[in-house]
Design goal:
This protein is mainly alpha-helical. The chain has 8 helices and no strands.
């Protein structure tokens, strides 16, 4: 039997849903889930590298709009999008603020920097969250010819995300049981947060060390291995790459015709 679980089965010990709000085999509504993870990664990489030369808001805005249109078909629930996308939104806003305060193009340049960063980050986030970790590693090895050792590392890292989330919850509850609470003191709140973060870092290093030892003991990455599953490349995967390229061309074309296209170091 394969590891084909629904979103209701993919929960942390605390009961929180991890990533998808859709069956892992996709379906008509969540068709993006059923695509090859290698194709989704290549499409995200194509969009990210393609946006590097453009620093205006229109080019990045078109790509960002296209990525937002894909969200309903990715099976990503709102809570996961808020938790995982929040840091990227914060980075985009802070990047825009810095460019507004110290940049040479004022508000227009700040908006372009913020939109560009979000347009680069969102496709990668969709590709990662809408893909099963096992299928992701299979696609990396079989389709993208990534060496087995880093591919297995990616699989292990994705599988450990729920464990780290549960460990963060355990650390928080343990400190609360000892009476270590910030109350309404913002300084103490920041201090306790970084204390919990350091404890989580220590636990993650210990877990990673044990996992690396176990993987070395099983000879991961030391030679050719048989495949339990075959990573299939379908016509829809090719169409996804073609769609990403067309979206990029449309973004540059629209920006050039509107006269808003600004290239890096121009």
């Amino acid at each position: 039997m394969g590891d084909r679980r629904t979103a209701d089965d993919r929960r942390t010990p605390g009961g929180d849903t991890l990533t998808l709000d859709a069956p892992e085999d996709g379906g008509f509504r969540y068709w993006l889930v059923g695509l090859n993870p290698a194709a989704k990664l290549l499409a995200a990489l194509l969009l990210g590298l393609g946006l590097v030369p453009a620093v205006d808001a229109v080019t990045g805005g078109v790509v960002l709009a296209g990525a937002l249109l894909l969200l309903p078909f990715s099976g990503i629930d709102r809570r996961t999008l808020l938790v995982l996308g929040g840091p990227f939104l914060l980075m985009g806003l802070s990047n825009g603020l810095v460019n507004y305060l110290y940049g040479e193009h004022g508000a227009e340049g700040a908006l372009g920097a913020a939109v560009r960063l979000l347009a680069i980050a969102l496709p990668g986030l969709i590709a990662a969250v809408s893909s099963d970790p096992t299928e992701m590693s299979d696609g990396l090895v079989q389709r993208l010819r990534v060496p087995e050792r880093p591919a297995m590392g990616v699989l292990a890292a994705l599988r450990l995300v729920p464990l780290l989330a549960d460990q963060w919850r355990t650390i928080t509850l343990a400190r609360r049981a000892r009476g270590l609470e910030a109350g309404r003191n913002p300084v103490r709140m920041v201090t306790l947060f970084f204390g919990r973060l350091f404890a989580l870092l220590v636990r993650s290093i210990r877990t990673g060390t044990l996992l690396a030892t176990a993987m070395d003991a099983r000879a991961f990455g030391t030679g050719p291995r048989t495949r339990a599953r075959r990573s299939r490349w379908r016509r829809a995967d090719t169409l996804l790459l073609a769609g990403a390229a067309l979206l990029l061309v449309a973004a540059y074309t629209l920006s050039a015709r509107l006269g808003t296209l600004v290239l890096l170091f121009s």
